[in-house]
Specification:
alpha/beta, Rossmann fold, 2 domains, 7-stranded parallel β-sheet, 3-stranded antiparallel β-sheet, 12 helices, 10% strand, globular, DUF2827
Length: 405
């Protein structure tokens, strides 16, 4: 299925849809010496009462006030997060791991909570990165500079460290974590089936910990075996940082307003593998078309990109367990349920817009970097990582490392 489709309310006109999302906090920070900041019991109680009881009240559709109080960490760490800034400028919107790097940066550096730098493992110049990277105010360093900083923690996320780099960091006293935000298990099976033997995915082992998302923890035994590291679950994060970069530049209609025009359905999938495929969205659209052909009218495949609607809040094709009460959720690969949810969106979304937006704000708030629940859980993971001794196996591996001086 190419192009997009007009979806019409059977028996009546139905509007097109886009949606507002929460406005992100600004990100800034510079590297400094780690400090030890202790909580008081009164502060802890205030945080529970003020910040975690309910989401902050929105200022406007899709926007929140930031929490009035967030407890400081018991220990503030010096942290580096790896990323790739290639020599040729690339878009931030082509890779989720790149975006996740900045979401985690936003959380860890929030209100100077920790001292965070980005470690560019690629050959590009940060000054020449595409504008949507928004690197102003963020300290970006090379690996050798990061090594000299004697960081407390280095997090591999936006680009993979080499084995020698991991060993050198660990021998210098730094704890190294790998944050796996993708479905490595499925992608590995594909590589094996299609004989894609050339892969660096598992060329580095012996991390101090491996963090993965809740939806991928079912394959923790596989990850533990391959990477020779303990596997822990880390909170999923999403920030409107890169969404807002686009909407802030729109002169009008930044967010959805019913127009009375036919709805437009578009499928945004890269079709890289079975994890990122348009198959189920196409099945759902086709099932609805066959069930009521008058509801869908297909637009030309050469449709101008200027007419494509940015759709974020409507999670019609969202089969993730963590989001069952968000958007228009369907179970697993149940295309019939997806068809019914798509039909529900076409028929009822406009009349339910205010309630839907309120629920969307509540759902997305769970995953924002400024949500105290996420902040405190990441603090716990960092404390656990820094204070846990290395296993005898890890110590033996480092003792045999050719990078030992």
């Amino acid at each position: 299925m190419t192009g997009a489709a007009h979806a019409q309310n059977p028996g009546a006109g139905a509007p097109s849809y886009e949606h507002a999302m929460p406005k992100g906090s600004t990100i800034s920070g510079a590297f400094s010496t780690a400090t030890n900041r202790q909580d008081t019991g009164d502060d802890k109680q205030q945080s529970t009462d003020d910040a975690t009881a309910k989401p902050p009240q929105p200022r406007a559709p899709g926007m929140w006030d930031e929490p009035e109080h967030v407890d400081p960490p018991t220990q503030s760490y010096n942290i580096g997060i790896c990323l790739s800034i290639p020599a040729k400028a690339t878009s931030m919107y082509t890779n989720g791991a790149k975006q996740a790097t900045f979401f985690l940066y936003e959380l860890l550096s929030y209100r100077d909570r920790h001292n965070v730098v980005l470690i560019n493992l690629d050959s590009g110049d940060p000054a020449e990165a595409a504008p949507e990277w928004q690197l102003d105010g963020i300290q970006v360093v090379r690996f050798d500079d990061a090594l000299a900083m004697r960081l407390d923690v280095v997090i591999e996320l936006g680009m993979q460290l080499g084995q020698g780099q991991v060993d050198r960091l660990q021998l210098a006293g730094t704890k190294v974590a790998a944050y796996r935000s993708g479905n490595n298990f499925i992608m590995t099976m594909e590589n094996m089936i299609y004989n894609r033997s050339v892969s660096t995915m598992f060329s580095t082992v012996g991390y101090d910990v491996l963090w993965t998302l809740p939806s991928f923890n079912r394959s923790n035994a596989f990850l533990n075996l391959i990477y020779q590291s303990d596997v822990k679950v880390a909170p999923y994060l999403w920030s409107p940082r890169f969404f807002s970069f686009v909407t802030d530049q729109l002169p009008e209609r930044k967010f959805y307003e019913p127009t009375g025009e036919p709805k437009r359905i578009a499928i945004f999938e890269p079709n890289l593998n079975v994890v990122k495929t348009a198959t189920m969205p196409m099945v759902i659209a086709e099932l609805l078309f066959r069930w009521g052909a008058s509801a869908l009218q297909f637009m030309p495949s050469y449709i101008s990109v200027d007419t494509v609607t940015i759709t974020i809040n409507i999670n019609i094709t969202s089969p993730h367990d963590c989001c069952q009460d968000c958007g228009y959720y369907y179970e697993g690969d149940d295309g019939y349920m997806g068809r019914d949810k798509l039909r529900e969106a076409i028929l009822t979304h406009d009349s339910n817009l205010d309630a839907y937006n309120a629920k969307a704000r509540e759902c997305v708030w769970r995953y924002t970097p400024v949500n105290p629940d996420n902040i405190y859980e990441w603090d716990r993971l960092l404390d656990e990582l820094v204070t846990s001794p290395r296993t005898p196996e890890q110590q033996e591996r480092l003792a045999r490392s050719p990078h030992r001086t």
